[in-house]
Design brief:
4 domains, homodimer, Rossmann fold, alpha/beta, Dna Ligase, domain 1, seven-stranded mixed β-sheet
């Protein structure tokens, strides 16, 4: 797919230059310095010799076949260069030149023409406005990138949307001893984007983990489809910048006002099994752990230290990350006790005391790793007189080699020199300066373990009265309304099998009794009148009616009172409503993100929505797993489980409600906002009941769809 | 106070040794290497010459005066050494020897004897079981510490409770270019502890900021008194480890079960104006910012960058930290536009584009710093061909020198070599690798700014019926009850002027009408009977009684119903209660931490307490500022302000409630638990009303206090 670009057998550098410290000179130097495995053809109108290589006036003059053209010419010459590349039979492009979409409308037009040609010629293209591409495979050795630093060999596939940043990152990776196999600076991502890279790397043996720096996601649905599949095979770590840029959404619903671009991105990454980091520092720390550790069997962490303080701090961090401090077996403790000094502590964290020699490090690690109750081990070293930190590190790596099945991390609170000394050597254990870095990394391993174990979600299909719902919406559209009435909204929900508050209309006592019998007691009775709007003031609302006898008595009393006051004339009848009582008011709904499309929302409703913001979002469509995750990811889940003596809520039915809403918006993609607030948890039955609902559609789109 | 230890004119090393790689040898070497300004006297029973210095068999043989004795002998010889030091007239001790409290009961006894001698002899003592002390002042140059690294000169006073960790930290500080002026490894803190150091450094010109690594706080009340005063003059940064160790509290009340040692420590540090960090990494990053930046005038941050990506990430971080992105003035933008290239962005973040030369860095910084709408500036540099990062850094420092009044931080996403190159040079700007580190540091500056601006709190004294409350408690004690009844609890609260739900007892219809008239309608009427416990089942609870007429009717109806059922005999009478209606249920109370004493709690009550944990704690006694902070630091404060059309709560009255509770527990320190749950916010008046209360005392202590 991207082989012509990432594994080229030959490279042309169009815009190669003899002028020092220009990209046209640097790229060529990098290609040579890194010893590219195939021929390199500089292209320059003047021809001649550049960096010792024969240069050609145009790609058409190159004698051999060319897989990849790296293009550095001024943007106004890019299109004709692509035409010549096509004529030459080149299928891979990497356009480093800037001056496209990023400069405004004119550049955007140029970029559109570029893309049109790439498509028409059957090429693939990285860029424009990018830093280049790298492949460190010994059979390729392509450094087609103008970063300061030569690439370090490793197992990471890395995509960066920011050019300059990509260069900075390459420097840092090298210092962190983090090598990579392939690097793509996607720039303006006219053709190749993060999704292309994901798909390309899915079955690439050389790539064991994928790192993404993103400012936007090109096609969220496609990203989700690919990432959720690939993340089960290889960890995908992402830094998504631009979290705060979204600003307040103008939507009027609760669902809308609580959403926002970052919530959508966050939901998408979560549903895709992508491990999200919020700073480059954390991104790289996590990558270091994945590069050197297997996925653990569980979350039980053992800590081995020669100093109490860091042991305490590591314990704090393990607990705060929600992992488990391993309980060492009596057998393990006895074995440790047999060789550690009396002042040592053989409980987890195991404190070997300051003077622990290397032999104690080895033996303690061996003993703790052999304990079946231990899934991961953190080894802490603080400098002690006469010991060399690099010797201790070597011992840790030796033990690790014999125990490849359990993650091991080292925390060496020593001089920077130690880390510099490691750089360039064959390091097989992630070493950090601070305990929290190791613990955070382990928590990500644990996250990946849970994601792998998570069943494949499926999108269930429920029976629904799609035609009925469409009819209701059409009626509103016919009146020019984008906003459905409460009644219409409730009816649409009901058509989709969502349990709504039962109600009926009655004009007589017998009809009222019949409606109440159908709905089931207790009920609420509300008069509806053309002349009396303040129902409550005239006793027109009767709550908690428990029997037909009571209902008939109340009905007669109501009529009598109205008659006394001369208000009977306007009475149209009464609405009989199911009386749903409960203290747990939830909220769910749909919001539409301009980029990510419809999003589902669930959480704590009532007066607490804005204050507590105990809500969670997922991108539609929902799988059953997504729905299950949603319900369990709000704090209020404890209330649903039946905290403090309340009846447990019907969780399955809540999940179904979310899934049915997801189906609704899949059927009617022009639904812009939908709120069920409250979704009351019935105290009697525990089931979720939509007591109030509102739906808003996008008028033009709805009209086009419903005809 | 600690001058004899921290600024000694002469030092004896008792236990000096000729044996290499022992503490007795290393300490002596360090003292010499670091060129201690006074005479050094090795003490060794064998005498002779050690490290080129004349050794003496005992301190008594030393010819000159000795200020400080550093003691390294085996713990069993420490007491006699101290006796000899006393005889010699030595007043400063630093006991490095281990084998005291940390080893068990025997060692604890030895430590008690040590302390007794220190007190009796009028000495001060650091340790035992510590790493030593350091003072980098050129007039002292004391390195009485066996860390690997020689100390770096700077303006930090640093206290470490962990010896080995302290050593590791000294290494790291040096790498971070973070120098310090004084370092005390307090070890077992038999005499000198963090509080002693705080007090000593309060007026020490050489110490500009104080760093604490703590696992416990010796005397929380004293710590608070000192730290809250000193933190207004010098920032105090603390890492308190052992957060998770506390485990679940066994207390039965909500207040108790939500508390726990770390909540107490967190509250104490907050009330003391101490900036709390949760990892050493963050502690040092913050220290670096304080070491090189003034306190800003506001929270408006401007970002200057040569790459878009890091600018976006910095913007994200600024927003997430709750700070403000500075709005550059039109004037500033015009000035920037005048020299920056067309592709540059002159809005904040200012993107000078990748090729920005040093001159643009300087001019942009000058222009942005001159904008009165900017309080702090972050300068980001990503490597660009032909520029040297150290040259850019030098330019940033040059501009900073001309603008000492505004904090400036640098983020240089470049090679580690850059940071190594900085180490040892005179760096005046905090440089970081990642944007989040600079932003976090600025947020701490901002926190310190707010703390300095926060008015001194006062502890108000309210009129309260202390005798009345004592009488109620005594009555419970007389019956052997630690737990007060609801009635008693409510009466105690009432005696302390806390607005409780009004109620009265009545035996007749007239008494009931009289009580209701006194309380004010609407009221609730509840029967109280010796024979009928299920009041509700027999219609014994009548709510929302709105008038005397209705009350009398309901009373008669109640009596009639009981008569019909033959239940009248057991009737004692009725309780008339004020009917407090409201949807906002708060909670407040007192919990007792075994180490920190009484703590005040406030937050969202009702079914949400455990689920939302939207509660906050402060150590008693509360100042008016503490009470104001408490009410404003829970999310539910928005509900109190009157979100969504509810009446604003009487905030002043809520604060007063907390302050009155604080006074109550100051008067009766044996109150172990106190809950007001709910503290209902009256929908009608907005005032907080204690609807239910429970108080539990510590029986023995209460009896002793109340006689």
């Amino acid at each position: 797919m991207l082989d012509k670009i990432m594994k080229p057998r030959s490279v042309a550098v169009v815009g190669a230059s003899t002028k020092q410290h220009t990209i046209g000179s640097d790229i060529l130097k990098r290609l040579q310095e890194y010893a590219f495995c195939g021929p390199i053809y500089p292209v320059n109108p003047k021809g001649g010799v550049i960096e010792g290589l024969q240069a050609y006036p145009s790609v058409l003059d190159i004698p051999g076949d060319v897989d990849l053209a790296i293009i550095i010419v001024n943007s106004r010459f890019v299109l004709q260069t692509i035409d010549q590349c096509h004529e030459k039979g080149i299928l891979g492009l990497c356009v480093i030149s800037a001056g496209f979409k990023e400069t405004g409308a004119e550049g955007a037009r140029l970029e559109a023409e570029l893309l049109e040609r790439v498509r028409r010629y059957g090429m693939r293209c990285v860029g424009p406005n990018c830093l280049g591409v790298v492949n460190t495979h010994p059979g390729v050795r392509l450094d087609g990138c103008f970063a300061e630093t030569l690439p370090e060999r490793g197992n990471i596939g890395f995509v960066s949307q920011s050019g300059a940043l990509g260069g900075g990152i390459l420097n840092i990776l090298k210092d962190l001893n983090l090598g990579f196999s392939q690097f793509i600076s996607i720039g303006n991502q006219a053709d190749v984007n993060a999704e292309t890279a994901l798909e390309y790397w899915e079955n690439e043996a050389d790539v064991d983990q994928i790192l993404l720096y993103m400012e936007s996601i090109h096609d969220p649905a496609n990203f989700r489809r690919l990432a959720s599949r690939i993340s089960k095979k290889k960890p995908i770590l992402a830094l998504k910048a631009g979290r705060s840029a979204a600003g307040a959404s103008a939507a009027s619903s609760h669902t809308g006002s609580l959403a926002g671009a970052d919530l959508a991105a966050d939901a998408l990454l979560r549903q895709s099994g992508v491990i999200r980091e919020f700073s480059l520092r954390d991104l790289f720390a996590t990558a270091k752990v994945f590069a050197n550790c297997p996925i653990p069997k569980g979350d039980r962490v053992a800590i081995i230290t020669n100093s109490g303080g860091p042991g305490i701090m590591a314990t704090d961090a393990v607990c705060e990350q929600g992992m488990t401090m391993a309980q060492l077996s009596d057998d393990t403790k006895a074995k440790l006790r047999a060789f550690l000094p009396a002042a040592a502590s053989v409980k987890n964290p195991v404190d070997m005391i300051a003077s622990a020699p290397i032999e104690h490090y080895k033996q303690t690690m061996e003993t703790v790793l052999a304990d079946p109750g231990v899934d991961m081990v953190i080894v802490i070293y603080l400098p002690f007189l006469g010991l060399r930190d690099t010797d201790v590190a070597r011992a840790v790596m030796d033990v690790k080699a014999a125990h490849p099945e359990k993650p091991i991390a080292g925390v060496f609170m020593t001089k920077n020199e130690f880390f510099s000394a490691l750089a360039g050597t064959d390091v097989t254990v992630p070493f950090f300066m601070y305990v929290e870095e190791a613990v955070d990394g382990f928590e990500r391993l644990n996250e990946q373990r849970r994601w792998i174990a998570r069943p494949e979600g499926r999108i269930p299909v429920f029976d629904a009265d799609r035609e009925g719902a469409a009819g209701i919406m059409k009626a509103a559209l016919a009146e020019g309304r984008a906003q459905l009435t409460t009644r219409e909204s409730i009816d649409v929900l009901s058509a989709y099998g969502i349990r709504v508050c039962g109600s009926g209309f009655a004009r007589t006592e017998d009809e009222a009794a019949e409606a109440a019998g159908r709905i089931g007691y207790p009920v609420v009775m509300k008069m509806t009148s053309k002349t009396t709007s303040h129902k409550t003031d005239v006793g027109g609302v009767r709550v908690n009616i428990r029997s037909e006898e009571e209902l008939r008595a109340q009905y007669r009393d109501l009529v009598a009172r109205l008659e006394t006051r001369g208000l009977l004339d306007g009475l149209e009848g009464v609405i009989i409503q199911e009386m749903v009582t409960g203290t747990r008011e939830m909220v769910c709904g749909i919001a539409t993100d301009p980029q990510y499309g419809p999003m589902m929302m669930f959480g704590l409703g009532g007066v607490f929505i804005e204050v507590m913001k105990d809500v969670t979002f997922r991108i539609a469509p929902l799988t059953d797993q997504d729905a299950a995750d949603m319900v369990r990811s709000v704090k209020a889940f404890k209330l649903l489980e039946g905290a403090r003596g309340t009846k447990p809520a019907d969780i399955a039915r809540i999940e179904e409600t979310l899934l049915r809403l997801s189906q609704l918006v899949a059927d009617f993609p022009f639904v812009d906002e939908l709120d069920i607030n409250p979704l009351m948890i019935s105290e009697k039955t525990g089931e979720p009941v939509a007591v109030d609902g509102r739906i808003k559609v996008r008028l033009e789109e709805a009209r086009a769809a419903l005809g």
